[in-house]
Amino acid sequence: MKPLLALSRGIDALNVRIGKLSSWLILVAIVVSSVNAVVRKLFDVSSNSWLELQWVLFSAVFLFCASWTLRDNEHIRIDILSSHLSKRMRDGIDIFGHVFFLLPFSLLLLWTSWPFFLKSFYINEQSLNVGGLPQWPAKLLVPVGFLLLTLQAFSEIIKRVAIMTGRLEDKASSDENGPIALAAEAERLMTAQQGGDDAAEQR
């Protein structure tokens, strides 16, 4: 199990680093969008390449940060329901979801997106819009992004199995600001709000 945990740590470190670097592309997209808007309004000059660059930057952030989001357990889940389940049940659901849903989906997208990119690369596909960007660099983002997500899925499965067998501590569940703690706090606030509404009706 130790070699697998070492592999998992390496995958985590890779995706965190890529995710943090990719997050700066949000700032680049904002600058590009702002400059493009100002130049278009002041000088009545614009180009489809600037607009398409914004789309590519947004796609890069979404695809390259997805694995980082999964690693940090920040993806959407119904925490209020899962907080009522046992720890072992939550871990089992995570493993089932990763093995039977996430992995098949990411592998399928990885398998189909690679020839999608290669075809575009071989013909040097260009934008259909005048003055637009080449299309193959944008299409390369898809297989790369899903490769990172596939690797992270394997990492999450390794960690969850290690947690269930007692070989690894679950830091997410022990974190006082983790999803389970936040769900419990949300439920407490909802209960308090309901109690306040009942008291107001009685008055």
Polypeptide structure, described:
By secondary structure, the protein is mainly alpha-helical. The termini are far apart. It has one domain (2-195). The chain contains seven helices and no strands.
In short:
This protein is an all-alpha fold and 203 residues long.
- Terminal CA distance reads 62 Å
Average pLDDT: 86
Q: Which series of helices and strands comes N to C?
A: HHHHHHH
Number of helices: 7
Give the number of DSSP strands: 0
- How big a fraction of the residues is strand? under 5%
How many domains, in number, for the residues?
A: 1
**Poorly predicted parts:** none
Report the sheet with the most strands, covering strand number, pairing sense and barrel closure. Answer: none
The helix-and-strand class reads mainly alpha
Radius of gyration: 22 Å
- Report the principal-axis shape: globular
As a percent range, the share of helical residues equals: over 70%
Offer a few descriptive terms.
globular, mainly alpha, 203 residues, 80% helix
Set out the fold topology:
Layout: H1 2-43, H2 48-71, H3 79-82, H4 87-122, H5 136-164, H6 171-174, H7 179-202
Helix pairs in contact: 1-2, 1-5, 2-5, 4-5
